[in-house]
User: Fold this.
Amino acid sequence: MTGSSSASTNISIKLLIDVSAKKVLFAEASKEFVDFLFNVLTLPVGTVIKLLKKDSMVGSLGKLYDSIENLSNTYMQPNQSKDVVLNPKMSNCGANVPFLLPNADAAMDKKFYRCRGDSSHNYVTHDPTGMCPSDCGYKMSTEVTFVAGNDAVTVATEGGGFVKGVVTYMVMDDLVVKPMSTISSITMLNTFNVKEIGSLQEKVVSVEMKEGLMLLKASLQCKNVLTSVFLS
Assistant:
């Protein structure tokens, strides 16, 4: 998962549970948890499959992943690598997002490479094993330095990630995210037709790597994600 080394690997959320219905109504969450949820959407499909493969991923994509993994490099185009599919590079747009999922790709430090033979070729890649598109016969293996723009300073001062940290967020059981407010909380109770306030229970849960994987898997399989993960 994209993030900084200083990002927390353990965050907490507060669940509001309808005990009688055995259901999580919503979670009160901080910026860090919402950043994690948003970052899930930036994961390439190949990375998602790789993360969930050992957890019995449902469907045929896992089989497709296995077939590519087992396919001999003999059948690949000379300028292509299986790693492009099996270990796709992830976007860096979610910088400083908590490490709640395993680091599926050690090359996420965003290194860039140009043609080893001719610096005038205006091609850049993440894959140092790829061949230069100009047909010069050289690999794109010479590392170049990426220079961040002024936006990088703004991101650093605002804490990175996707959302601002000045408010608390409400995360619904189906992962709908919205700003938290007293009015919205009351509205949710009416929406769920909660008549007995005594049946409601608050529970603080820790979200670490195990829960991160469970949330990712549940989000692909059902609409009661929080209930599935934290009340199962």
In short: Residues 140 and 224 are 46 Å apart (CA to CA). Strands lie at 11-18, 23-29, 112-114, 142-144, 169-172, 177-179, 200-207. The longest strand covers residues 11-18. The first helix runs from residue 31 to 40.
